[in-house]
Amino acid sequence: MQGYKAAYIAVVFIAGFGSIGMNFVYPENELLIMAISHWILAVLTFPIGVFASAIGFVLLYMGLSTPAEITLVTTPIFAALGYAQWFRLGPRIYRSRRARDLVQ
């Protein structure tokens, strides 16, 4: 299970920080690349990743950050929320549900 955790975190960081690297290659498509990266991160962390998306959208809407800065800020948040959801909360919920079903 430890390998899956590391692979998940690696995929999230590659999706987030890889898009920042892509901006150096294709600077004219910054907003499109960041939007695609953001939606990939949202899918990897759905449904709890909505909180990280909300943080990013508020920063962008208020004009406080560029799309690249938002991705830089929200990628670790996406990674932490996704890890908590898939490797902490999910197993705990299903484990307790299975124990309840066995008792009945």
Write up what this structure looks like.
- With 104 residues, the chain is an all-alpha fold.
- The protein has one domain.
- Helix content is 85%, strand content 0%.
- The chain contains 4 helices and no strands.
Set out the fold topology:
Elements lengths: L1 H24 L4 H15 L5 H12 L5 H37 L1
Helix pairs in contact: 1-2, 1-4, 2-4, 3-4
Summarize the biggest pleated sheet: none
Order of helices and strands: HHHH
**Could you tell me how far the N terminus lies from the C terminus, measured between alpha carbons in angstroms?**
29 Å
**Total strands:** 0
Radius of gyration: 16 Å
How many domains comprise the coordinates?
1
Keywords: Membrane, Transmembrane, Transmembrane helix
Transmembrane segments: 6-26, 38-64, 70-89
Task: List the defining traits of the structure above.
104 residues
At a glance:
Keywords: Membrane, Transmembrane, Transmembrane helix. This protein is mostly helical and 104 residues long.
